[in-house]
Design brief:
alpha/beta, three-stranded antiparallel beta sheet, 8 strands, disordered C terminus
Length: about 290
């Protein structure tokens, strides 16, 4: 079932493109028609592209990897920070720091500097500084927090990049392409989708359009994170079942009883016969040693 539909996208104004004279010919496959000198985006193709992007993002989140969201334009800043923060993904809504991806170790040093300043405030170092020095350090901390505070948890390069406006965030896209990082992006009629792995043709200027698409993708990420959590919760239970024979062997039960109980558990768990046989040998050996 599609995550959205034609009417929902239409109500959000996702179909409005730019003036015909500003179009990029590479967007021709995603343009439905022209009306009053403005290109209209084909929302049927937008629905398909949203589903493709959502499925890919869900898989990335399920594997435990990070997706970096980039939106520095005024209409998208608050939307991205609000929705992306809920799924614990890094984002950039202030000026893109040049070299953030291609010179990632330097960016990490700046992020660590925030931690060092915080440590100074707790270990009493601040009290040994003059008033002027404290003011300078505090201002520096505020500036770092504003520009890099949203990527504190990004300890390694992201596995994917999401961009709201390809034209405005061209430096970020260029860095991602240089490093082979796949790019998801909202593509308006004035943009070039040829270098984007997961283009989503839609109006990237209207706040309603941006909010709808970001919300759908964040929902997909949330689904992936929940599935990952469920898988992790199941792992300990499976491990417990694999070693149930060894647990039984430590209860000083007769060998015949151990074998009978273990056989019942084997049918429920459905583990490989070879693994169970090897564990049987270990249990028999342990039982013999305890008997002696």
């Amino acid at each position: 079932m599609p995550r959205t539909n034609f009417q929902e996208l239409l109500d959000a104004g996702c179909h409005f493109g730019h003036l015909k004279r500003k179009w990029n010919p590479a967007m021709a496959p995603y343009i439905f028609m022209e009306r009053n000198g403005i290109h209209i985006i084909d929302l049927e193709k937008t629905v398909v592209k949203i589903d493709e992007a959502a499925a890919a993002m869900k898989q990335i989140a399920r594997s435990g990897k990070k997706i970096l969201f980039v939106a520095t334009k005024k209409q998208a800043k608050e939307i991205v920070s609000e929705k992306v923060k809920k799924v614990n993904m890094p984002y950039v809504t202030e000026r893109w720091p040049g070299g953030m991806l291609t010179n990632f170790p330097t960016i990490r040093k700046a992020v660590k500097k925030m931690g060092n300043i915080d440590k100074m405030a707790t270990d009493g170092t601040f009290t040994n500084l003059s008033k002027r020095e404290r003011l300078q350090v505090t201002r520096q901390r505020a500036k770092l927090e504003k520009n890099l505070g949203s990527i504190v948890d990004l300890t390694r390069l992201p596995s994917a990049l999401f961009v709201v406006d390809v034209c405005k965030e061209r430096i970020a896209v260029r860095e991602a392409k240089r490093l082979g990082i796949p790019v998801f992006a909202m593509i308006d009629t004035n943009s070039d989708p040829s270098d984007i792995e997961f283009p989503i043709p839609a109006n990237d200027d209207a706040s309603k359009s941006i909010s709808l698409i970001i919300g759908l993708l964040c929902d997909a990420i949330d689904e992936g994170l929940n599935e990952r959590k469920l898988e992790k919760d199941k792992e300990p239970a499976q491990k417990d079942k694999k070693f149930i024979k060894k647990d039984l062997a430590t209860k000083d039960l007769p060998e015949s009883v151990i074998e009978a109980l273990a056989a019942e558990e084997e049918e429920e768990v459905g583990d490989d016969d070879e693994e169970m046989t090897e564990e049987d040998d270990d249990i028999v050996a342990e039982a013999e040693e305890s008997a002696e």
